[in-house]
Amino acid sequence: MSCSHMNRRRDTVMILPPYLRTRGLAALRLNRRTFETWQTAQINRWLTNAATQVDAFAPQSDQITQSGLTALPRMTRDGLVSNFAAYNRLSLSASAVLEMEADGSAPTGYHVGRSTGTTGGRPMPYIVSDAERSRWLGTILAKALPDVWRTRHRVAVILPRPSPLYDRAGAMVQVLSPKEGWQALRDAVTRIAPTVIVAPPRALLSLTDLGLTPRRVVLAAEVADQHDRNMITTAWPKARIGEIYMATEGLFAVSCDHGALHLCEDRTHVDLEPITNDLFEPVISDFSRHTQILARYRTGDVVRKATPCPCGSPHRPIAVLGRRRDLPVINGVHLPFDTLGRVIRDAAGSDYRLCQKGGFTLHLTLPPEANATAASQALADIAPDARIQTTITPLTLPTDTKLRRITRIV
Length: 410
Fold this sequence. Notes:
- The protein is α/β, with parallel strands linked by helices.
- The protein has helices spanning 3-27, 32-49, 61-67, 77-82, 94-103, 130-144, 182-192, 201-205, 226-235, 337-348, 372-382; strands at residues 110-114, 125-129, 155-158, 173-176, 196-199, 216-219, 240-247, 250-255, 261-263, 268-274, 280-286, 297-298, 301-305, 317-323, 329-330, 333-334, 353-357, 361-366, 387-392, 406-409.
- It contains eleven helices and 20 strands.
- The chain starts with a helix and ends with a strand.
């Protein structure tokens, strides 16, 4: 037996248990109350056996034992990066992990990586064990590709940068990047002829004319507005369109067969902290992770609660809208991403970029074919206190950064 075959067999053996556990729990079809009882038991076990073993939380172990998650302070991205060694059991600093990621090394039995850094701020490092990587991949396969054991899939995963998290998936998964340009990406995807494509919406939009016939298309890494979704659905009408909501910090939500994006509450506890009456920021505690602890971590994202899903899952459905720091606020009034996007697109008949600059200026960028007058008026109607500035210039899909149509600079 060849070494590569033995490695593939080993990887399959490690992925199979978390896959079966995830599928088995879903098959029980627990109601919400019973599921929360199960989840609480998992969290309490995790708090005792993992969370309180890192320096950041060890001094509070008695209080945590008594009060659970509520005894912990909120974590932020900046706080985690600044004091990274206190939140992982190997006591590795952020700079040490980033150096390892850069030179391709890692402690034995572990894997390191980093965020793309495309949304600003310092890169976010991460460290996971072999077992955690297997649990992560097994969970994704169980939720997003449940027929993987009986169907020979060819999966194209398009990411801004490589990730060791996908290595265990073997030859089935090809990880690609648009950094070499859209044509190079199109050529690579054409050669693979994938049955499954996992990619940011901007990458999927660049592939819609290639005549591909995927069975599944999964949106990931960026927010897709309704126009993007319509174009992707039109391009691949026979494909099952889904979505994965995850970040460097973890796997947060995956679509069900009905298309609803359900929180992965069999891995994470999620508090939906109100921003407005119907907008929330997820605060997550990932009880699947034992090496790098994420407890009551503010994601910095904006979500909306979705309507109940007929699939029967006890996991709550949500819609991801964007980053909280990009959410426009005029005179104390929050302007939801999806509302702004719909109004501008309907009026302009085109793509757009919108940036809030300072407290009251909304800078709208439109391509030459857009109805700029109608778009500016529509924007003024929903933001009457804003100063609207318009620029006309061709718009392109970026290859090296995430597509953020709405941003905020204050």
